[in-house]
Each structure stands twice: as C-alpha cells, then as structure tokens.
Amino acid sequence: MQISEILEKFLKEISSLRQILLVGGVSLNKDMENLKKGANIIIATPGRLEDILSNHSSINFDLCVKSLELLVLDEADRLLDLGFSATLDSILSYLPRLRRTGLFSATQTKELQHLIRAGLRNPALIVVKEKSNVSTPVNLKNSFTIVRPEYKLPVMIDFIRSIGFNTKYMIFLSTCACVDYLSRIVQALLPSINVLSLHGKMKSKRHKVFDKFRRAENGILICTDLMARGIDISEIDWVIQYDPPCTASSFVHRCGRTARIGNEGNALLFLLETESAYVDFIRRNQKVELHQMETKLNERTVDECLQYMRQIQLKDRLIFDKANRAFVSYVQAYKKHECNLILQLKDIDLGKLAMGFGLLRMPKMPELKGKIVSSFDGPEVDINTIPYAHKQRELLRIKKLNEYQNTGVWVTNSKCKQKQTESWSESKKKKLEKREKRSKRKEKKELKQQSLTTTTKKKRKRINEDDIEQLAKDIALIKKLKKKKMSQEEFDAAFEV
C-alpha cells in the first residue's frame, strides 16, 4: 500500500498513466471492476495476483499480462521466506518471457539465486552500499543493556519515561502472544502516550493501525518482526528490541526502521545476563558495533509493574490467559532461536522470567515437566475463582466448572455423544457402508484432480505454443531488417514502436 501511495503522487502529474492496487482484505469484485477499466501499472501481493490469474478467466487477465514489459519483485527474499515460492512460479508462468525483471532485496539468499535462475535471462547484479564497512547507518546509535528477566519490563518503562513522551518508539517482541499481552500492560503503565500493537495475526486491523502510527507525531508501536522490513515510517526516534530477534539478519532490519534518509536514530537491545555473548556474535556476523548503556532500576517501578500485571489478571481471566500464552510462546520461540548455541533455554531462570511476565502461577508445559522452580514467588490465589469480564463467557465457564466438580470430566466444545450398544451384524453393515462411501469419495477426488491437471497442462501448453509462435515471428522480422528486406519504419510499425 505504501508503494501505491508514493506512486500516486507521481501519477498526478501524468494523466496518461493509471495504476491499480490488488491486495487481500479488499473486495475481489471491486478489484475485478478496476481491472476491467484497464491500467498501465499493477501493484499486487502474490496471493491476490495468482488468484485473479488462475481463477478468474472471465476478464481475460492472463491474456492482458502478455503485453507486460517490466516486472518488479520488491523484497524478493522476504517473499520466499514467507513461503511464496510456488505462488511466484505460478505467476511467472503466465507472464511473457521477453520482459525486463528487477528483483530488489536488502539481503541475498540461496532461494533468491534459484529465483534469479528461473525467472531472469542474462541477470546482472547491482549492489548499492555505503563506503563504510558496516551494516547499519553511520548516524544510528546502537546500544545494548543487560537486565535480569524479572526487571526487563520495569527498566523499559523507566527508560521511556526518562526519554519522554514527545517521541516515536517501535518496540519489537518475539511472538504475537507477547505483543497482545504486553501492549495492554504498557498502555496502562504509560497512559500519557498512545500505545498501538501490530502483528501478523491481525488481518483486518493491520492496515488501520499501521496508518495511524505512521501519521502520528509521537507514540509507541509494539510489534513482531512483521514490521522489521518492507515498511517506511518517517521520524522513528527509538527502536527498542525487547528480545533478541530470531535471526541475525532481522537485527539489522529492526534497527533499519530508524535513522532513515540521513536522519539520526537510536536503537536499544535488551539482553539477559545469560545472553551477553550475543553482542560479540552480532559484531562478527553482521558487523554491527553495540555500545553498552547503563539503565537505572527503580524499585518502585518494579513493584508497580508486578502489582498491576497481577491485579489485571485477577479482574479478568482473559488477561490471565493472555499472560500464560505470552510466557509459553516466548519459551517456545526461544528454543527455536537461530543462535541457540549462545542463547540456550537451559541457562535462563524460568521462575524469574515468569515473574517478569507477572504470572500468577507457573503454567503446565513440557519445558517445566519434573522441575521444581523455587525462584518463582506467586500469590496465594485459587485460579478457579478468577472470572471473565465478559458475562456470557463467564457464565459458560461456571457451568463447565460445576460439571467438572460433579463428574470429574471437563466439558469441551466438541459434542461427544454416548455410544449406544448394537448387534454385531448391524455394526458390520455400518462399517461396510462407511468403507464404500469413503471409497467413492476418494475415487471422485482423484477424477477431479486428474481433470484439473489436464486442464492446467492444456492451458500451459497453449501458452507455450503462443509464445514460441510469437518469438518465431519476431526473429523473422529481425532477420528481414538485417538483410535489408524491409525498412526501419516497417520494422518499427510491425513491433508497434
């Protein structure tokens, strides 16, 4: 959407050119109507573009793109990381082979090289970089601070209070669940500044939240690595990495949200005492120098954060659930960290970490099985007495709890009917009928699949034959021009130049 907005500013002065934006979350019928009007430039996400090319032949869009002259894949390596490889292959099969293609990317990957070999002829690599041998801008101040797990949130709250609220911050967290939970806490602890949250599971609200933060003069955006690249928000003063990113390259992309277009910027990485080796790793792996920043710990803020996190959970069970999900997701993400040789879960005090999340009790999870976590100091509270603020949800929970206390079985959402006894002959008859139905469904599915495969092959074959025929005609015209059997004007007219 950002590319479309920037392009629109240029097209205001060029009335002969028209653009169309094709993205998910917008009515498909509206996109179809816009395509019927025609356009010179199409900006699209891979999923929506493939859907229109493959499933909506009524507008002959697949034939229209045969006149395509230039294809641009922005953040090409990111598209591959997100699993769009098959989608891109499908899109390329519809496009003419005689075209110019540009792949733009901040990093080079093996998958990107495969895409270059598949989609480009005579590729030329252009590398744009600064003279200095560093991965981040010179006007970016990169810092780190060492904190204990139970003090991480209070230290960050005090840090933001010390910098001020007339500032724009981006705070990166490891998981969507952490964003959901901690954004509520930060909003309550910092009421003087607007706090927004954004992650990949927010399909409908995502564009509105992003646009609101981009237009704001100050505020805090708490997000996942979804916002680490491919976006341009001006005047970000501070990037705070609450957790080390899952990949080393993501560290540079996160920092790159600030100090853009010659502006000054600051980035601060929070590390636990067991993660200090990460500083040297980033220096060697990404050529980024980090300078240690001393942060102050205020005991009053520690008590304020812990008390608020626990009080809000006691008032609403939904927050209690979110806190537990955030903790569990953080631990699971940490286990899968790319730098697991230096960032190992066994080195972290999970009890202190749970205190940092303000948990009321240690959750049941495989990582804690058979372990005694003595460092966790939780309040004495009956978890079953914590209510949902939502009345209907609370009534349903009480009903299930009463049934559990009476029967010893927790009622789930799935309706389990008690199996009735039946004769052996009836049972055998039903099994045979089920087997026969299953066989018919399988046969029908296979026939449908064969039909689809045949149609696709025919379509691709037709396209390939058309391409070859057109290419042969073009070669014949070039030969005629070289042998002076036709004039330059005739040649230009044949190519519609």
Explain what the structure shows.
The chain is an alpha/beta fold. Helices cover about 50% and strands about 10% of the residues. It has 18 helices and eleven strands. It is globular.
Question: Can you give keywords for this protein?
Answer:
globular; alpha/beta; two-stranded parallel sheet; 11 strands; 48% helix; 497 residues; seven-stranded parallel β-sheet; single chain
Offer a quick outline of the entry.
With 497 residues, the chain is an alpha/beta fold.
String of helices and strands: HEHEHHEHHEHEHEHEHEEHEHEHHHHHH
Strand order, sheet with most strands: 7-8-6-9-10-5-11
What is the terminal-to-terminal distance?
A: 32 Å
Rounded mean pLDDT score:
85
Structural class: alpha/beta
List the helices and strands and how they pair.
Blueprint: H1 2-11, E1 19-22, H2 28-37, E2 41-44, H3 46-55, H4 61-64, E3 70-74, H5 76-81, H6 85-94, E4 100-104, H7 110-119, E5 140-147, H8 152-163, E6 168-172, H9 176-189, E7 195-198, H10 206-215, E8 219-223, E9 238-241, H11 248-255, E10 265-272, H12 277-286, E11 291-292, H13 299-315, H14 317-335, H15 350-356, H16 391-407, H17 424-482, H18 488-494
Parallel strand pairs: 1-2, 3-4, 5-10, 5-11, 6-8, 6-9, 7-8, 9-10
Helix pairs in contact: 3-6, 8-13, 9-14, 13-14
